[in-house]
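User: tokens in, sequence out, please.
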């Protein structure tokens, strides 16, 4: 059929089927007929495919079966051939196996008879040499004989072999006995060994023979050491007077004689590898340590004698040092010895207590000696370095005395407590008396500067070295131990000395020089001032700051560490800026009672504007002088650029607060809205009501309540959000501000009271503040805790307490 062709065209057929008008009404029958035809075709295709697959599988199965039968036939043939080949090979190699077994038996027999000949010859040779005590010649045959003994162990059941092995064993026993007797005669001789004892014969012969038996070697060494120390153990018995602590030095002397005698007369009879002097010393150490534990427990627990204890300890330490030197150049290690001095560990508290008298003597010497060393540029008391050298020596001795473990922790904590006690004593008896009290009248400023800097620099050195000492002690403590609580109080004590010395430098030495300038400020006729040039007091201040011979310049370069120079400069900057600010506020603040129209104000508001302009000019002059001083000081103390920038930033911050206040003073009050805009801009929208009120009071605004209310309404309208903190300049003069607040809340006029308390909302101050607290001599002080913190973080890189360094 044409439809069955692969290139059949469906177009004509579709046109024929759908060509008439009735074809659409018959579309359902057409679709159904098409589906039936499709299903029929699919069934025909599946049936055809299955028939084809079955035929193909049947053909493949038949082919595989034929191939498998051929393969099994090949395997059967190979198996038969393999069995035939195996049988053939067995017939060919049968005789070869017999030959191999015969060869192996022959080789074993030859080896056996050769070894038998060797051991027999070695036996007879050793027997003949032993009769003449020729130990050196016996080495080779004896070693061979002893080595072959292991080989013949499997043949001991043979009667002749068993007899030979028994004879060899007897010969070995006799050899070891003969060697021991030779050494007994040698060591037992009261005089120098006779010529008949050949060093080489015993050392290179007899001792080499003992190397074949570890038990025999250990027995000879043990016997020799016991024999050498026999008299020591017998004479210095713990129950006899000779064995008491008083005679401990005699025991050591006697052992030195034994050791020296052994090295001179007997050491060459033993191999160096046996380390006989070390073994001899180790045994003596063990015996003496055991005796000492008994003696110390007996002598010190009931009625301890510190002199006896210290004498015994020192004698023991000297003896151990002698032994360390004596055997340090030998092949053995002296550090492996179990130290005798470790017996003293449980009683080392007595040793630490004994140092009290030594430290007391040192403190007395420190008090008597000159504190200033003219030849040294460093302003540090020499005794402080000696104090820590003593501590370093004591630490080293303690570490030599005690071994690691709980005992070491206990003793190091005791030692730390001892150090802490004497560091406090040094502070109170050496440094404190040198520190000038704040109420002392200073006659000689040059001397006062030197001694104050001496205290500060020495306290800093001590604080730094205490931290190093603490770290060094902590290295030898268990991880859970902590020394910080022990040294914390003494660190605070030295930190307090540093802070106190800095206060003296700033408040007792620098501040009086500045007081003259503040008096000039107060004596200035501010009512007639004209803004033309800097005021006279600024010239005075500039001279004090920059004069090469001024106290400030002399102090700045005398600190041992740069951090204190910068701290001193910070304090001076704060002193000058706060003094200047206090003078301004004292000049302009209203006199009580406030809000009283009958009390005349110091100045008129217009005069305050002119005064503010002059003060602003003076502030710029003062700021310039401080910056020049910062540059000069950076060169003087070899400071870094970073530190110089930091100090200049500190100058800017301090002076900027004052300049902001001065800017407020020169703003006119003619237009309240303009004033409020300027106030907000200058103060960065500060809305603190006390600051706002105080500024108006400083501007000498008349006590006109209507004017104050008008200004307040505008301030209130523009203060919906802003900073509530007190203005920085006024915060620095808190006593003066508090005094104003007290006076302002206690005005006599009821109308003003209502305005201040109800409208302004200023709290009622219950206690008046002393107005003198804001005088020019007062200053912001740096808390001593700040300096303490700096000391802990800025430690020297050079460690004083590096043991052995």
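Assistant: Sequence out:
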């Amino acid at each position: 059929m044409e439809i069955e062709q692969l290139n059949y065209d469906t177009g004509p057929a579709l046109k024929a089927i759908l060509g008439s008008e009735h074809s659409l009404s018959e579309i359902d029958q057409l679709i159904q007929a098409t589906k039936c035809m499709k299903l029929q075709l699919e069934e025909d295709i599946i049936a055809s495919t299955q028939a084809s697959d079955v035929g193909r599988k049947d053909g493949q199965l038949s082919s595989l079966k034929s191939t498998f039968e051929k393969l099994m036939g090949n395997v059967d043939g190979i198996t038969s051939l393999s069995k035939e080949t195996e049988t053939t090979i067995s017939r060919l190699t049968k005789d070869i196996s017999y030959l191999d077994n015969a060869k192996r038996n022959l080789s074993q027999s030859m080896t056996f008879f050769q070894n038998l000949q060797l051991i027999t010859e070695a036996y007879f040779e050793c027997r003949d040499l032993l009769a003449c005590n020729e130990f050196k010649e016996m080495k080779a045959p004896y070693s061979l004989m002893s080595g072959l003994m292991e080989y013949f162990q499997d043949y001991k059941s043979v009667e002749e072999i068993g007899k030979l092995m028994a004879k060899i064993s007897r010969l070995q026993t006799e050899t070891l006995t003969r060697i021991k007797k030779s050494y007994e005669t040698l060591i037992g001789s009261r005089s120098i060994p006779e010529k008949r004892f050949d060093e080489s014969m015993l050392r290179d012969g007899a001792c080499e023979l003992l190397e074949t038996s570890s038990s025999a070697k250990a027995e000879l060494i043990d016997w020799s050491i016991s024999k050498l120390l026999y008299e020591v153990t017998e004479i210095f018995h713990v129950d006899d007077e000779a064995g008491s602590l008083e005679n401990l030095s005699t025991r050591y002397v006697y052992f030195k004689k034994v050791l020296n005698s052994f090295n001179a007369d007997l050491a060459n009879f033993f191999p160096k590898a046996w380390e006989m002097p070390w073994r001899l010393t180790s045994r003596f150490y063990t015996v003496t340590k055991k005796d000492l534990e008994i003696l110390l427990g007996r002598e010190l627990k009931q009625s301890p004698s510190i002199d006896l204890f210290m004498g015994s300890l020192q004698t023991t330490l000297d003896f151990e040092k002698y032994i360390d030197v004596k055997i340090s150049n030998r092949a053995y290690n002296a550090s492996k010895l179990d130290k005798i001095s470790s017996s003293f560990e449980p009683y080392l508290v007595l040793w630490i207590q004994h140092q009290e008298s030594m430290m007391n003597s040192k403190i007395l010497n420190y008090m008597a000696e000159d504190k200033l060393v003219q030849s040294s540029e460093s302003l540090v008391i020499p005794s402080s370095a000696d104090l820590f050298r003593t501590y370093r020596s004591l630490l080293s001795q303690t570490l030599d005395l005690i071994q690691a473990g709980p005992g070491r922790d206990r003793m190091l904590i005791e030692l730390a407590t001892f150090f802490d006690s004497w560091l406090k004593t040094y502070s109170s008896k050496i440094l404190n008396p040198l520190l000038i009290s704040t109420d002392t009248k200073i006659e000689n400023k040059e001397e006062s500067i030197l001694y104050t800097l001496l205290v500060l620099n020495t306290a800093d050195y001590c604080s730094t070295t205490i931290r190093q000492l603490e770290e060094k002690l902590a290295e030898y403590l268990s991880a859970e131990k902590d020394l910080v609580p022990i040294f914390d109080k003494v660190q605070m004590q030295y930190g307090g000395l540093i802070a106190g010395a800095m206060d003296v430098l700033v408040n007792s030495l620098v501040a009086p020089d500045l007081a003259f300038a503040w008096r000039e400020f107060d004596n200035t006729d501010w009512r007639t001032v004209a803004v033309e040039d800097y005021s006279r007091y600024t010239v005075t201040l500039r001279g004090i700051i920059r004069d090469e011979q001024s106290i400030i310049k002399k102090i700045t370069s005398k600190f041992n560490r740069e951090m204190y120079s910068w701290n001193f400069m910070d304090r001076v900057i704060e002193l000058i800026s706060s003094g200047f600010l206090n003078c301004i506020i004292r000049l302009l603040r209203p006199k009580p009672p406030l809000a009283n129209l009958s009390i005349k104000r110091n100045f008129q508001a217009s005069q305050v504007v002119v005064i503010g302009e002059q003060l602003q000019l003076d502030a710029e002059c003062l700021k310039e002088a401080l910056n020049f001083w910062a540059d000069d000081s950076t060169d003087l103390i070899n400071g870094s650029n970073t530190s110089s920038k930091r100090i200049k930033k500190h100058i800017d911050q301090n002076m900027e607060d004052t300049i902001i206040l001065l800017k407020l003073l020169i703003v006119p009050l003619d237009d309240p809205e303009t004033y409020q805009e300027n106030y907000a801009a200058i103060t960065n929208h500060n809305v603190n009501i006390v600051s706002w009120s105080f500024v108006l009071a400083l501007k000498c605004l008349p006590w006109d309540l209507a004017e104050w209310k008008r200004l307040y309404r505008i301030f209130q309208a523009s203060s919906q959000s802003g900073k509530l903190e007190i203005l920085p300049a006024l915060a620095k003069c808190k006593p003066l501000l508090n005094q104003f607040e007290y006076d302002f809340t206690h005005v006599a006029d009821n109308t003003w009271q209502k305005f201040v308390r109800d409208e302004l909302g200023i709290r009622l101050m219950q206690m008046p503040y002393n107005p003198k607290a804001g005088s020019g001599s007062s200053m912001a002080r740096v808390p001593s805790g700040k300096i303490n913190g700096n000391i802990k973080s800025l430690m020297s890189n050079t460690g004083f307490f590096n043991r052995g360094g």
